[in-house]
Automatic annotation (TrEMBL):
<dbReference type="InterPro" id="IPR000182">
    <property type="entry name" value="GNAT_dom"/>
</dbReference>
<feature type="compositionally biased region" description="Low complexity">
    <location>
        <begin position="19"/>
        <end position="28"/>
    </location>
</feature>
<protein>
    <submittedName>
        <fullName>GNAT family N-acetyltransferase</fullName>
    </submittedName>
</protein>
<dbReference type="GO" id="GO:0016747">
    <property type="term" value="F:acyltransferase activity, transferring groups other than amino-acyl groups"/>
</dbReference>
<feature type="domain" description="N-acetyltransferase">
    <location>
        <begin position="1"/>
        <end position="157"/>
    </location>
</feature>
<feature type="compositionally biased region" description="Basic and acidic residues">
    <location>
        <begin position="1"/>
        <end position="10"/>
    </location>
</feature>
<dbReference type="InterPro" id="IPR016181">
    <property type="entry name" value="Acyl_CoA_acyltransferase"/>
</dbReference>
<feature type="region of interest" description="Disordered">
    <location>
        <begin position="1"/>
        <end position="45"/>
    </location>
</feature>
<dbReference type="Pfam" id="PF00583">
    <property type="entry name" value="Acetyltransf_1"/>
</dbReference>
<keyword id="KW-0808">Transferase</keyword>
């Protein structure tokens, strides 16, 4: 087996996506599969863009595993943002599982975050392998909820303040909120998120916050939300569901028990609450009010 960095190329991006898709398919069909697969998303182009972005920003944290014939059998994507390490993906093809591929990839990903005091992983699957991977990386497991269903905008209250469309000029505001909640700004990840999602921002004398709304795909949702208070987070999530519109299928994932404000908004909008995987943390308590991004944490 050969481990090599993921290159910023369409070929490597497809190799990562294909390995993750194969692992997810196995998990869906047999109950096995990867510890940390990519979220389901039919838009391969969007994932290609995300993978190439991480290959550029974190070349030391993104790795491919290849067999003797040069075929990709696994992949890991990890990030380092101002002292906060994140594991975005760890996936191994079914035929290569149980051979130490995942362990070797995890070791390289963890080496990338060796100097980081904090760590975060969104484990979107309840499979036991996910728990083993996260505990091996020294992370605490916080069971997560998700909101699903179709939005009933008419049941939502009017947001209690101004929510505006955002853009690149809001980078300093967002980085400041990030540092307060998760100990490290998302930095260049905001540029990538702006390419694929709609940004909403709120900022008044009581604090500030932002929310990326995912409008494409079979289910819309929140890609990332952070605010300095629950009241502002409630305002942003209410506005985001309103943007998605009446009757829109929605998925909002990775809600820890600390995000009851989000559960309340979802229930008010007619969404259902279920359990799904974990948010795994090291050196920090669950950020709140906060909804992490599966890709950028």
């Amino acid at each position: 087996m050969l481990l090599r960095p993921v290159r910023d190329s369409s070929q490597d991006a497809e190799a990562v996506r294909s390995a993750a898709h194969a692992a997810r398919t196995a998990a869906d069909g047999t109950g096995g599969g990867p510890p940390l697969p990519l979220p389901a998303d039919p838009d391969a182009g969007r994932w290609h863009s995300h993978i190439r972005h991480l290959a550029r920003t974190d070349p030391g944290g993104c790795w491919l595993a290849e067999d003797a014939a040069g075929r990709t059998v696994g992949a890991a994507l990890s990030t380092r943002r101002e002292g906060t390490w994140g594991l975005s993906l760890l996936a191994v093809r079914p035929e290569a599982q149980g051979r130490g591929v995942g362990t070797a990839l995890l070791r390289r990903a963890m080496d990338h975050g060796r100097a980081c005091l904090r760590g975060i992983v969104c484990g979107g699957t309840p499979h036991p392998a996910a728990a083993r991977v996260c505990r091996r990386a020294g992370l605490e497991l916080h069971p997560a909820m998700r909101l699903t269903g179709t939005v009933s905008v008419k049941r939502l209250p009017v947001p209690d303040g101004v929510v505006a469309g955002g853009g690149p000029g809001d980078r300093d505001l967002m980085d400041s909120v990030d540092r307060r909640l998760r100990g490290g700004a998302h930095g260049p990840d905001h540029e990538e998120l702006l390419r694929h999602t709609r940004l909403l921002v709120t900022d008044d004398f009581t604090g500030s916050g932002y929310c990326y709304v995912r409008e494409e795909g079979a289910a819309g949702g929140v890609e990332l939300l952070a605010a300095t208070s629950r009241r502002l987070a409630t305002r942003l999530l209410t506005a985001a569901l309103g943007v998605l519109g009446e009757g829109r299928a929605v998925l909002v994932h990775s809600l820890t028990a600390e995000q009851q404000w989000a559960v309340d908004v979802g229930l008010a909008a007619g969404l259902e609450v279920g359990t799904a995987g974990y948010v795994c943390l090291r050196g920090m308590r669950p950020p709140t009010p906060y909804i992490p991004s599966a890709a950028f944490l």
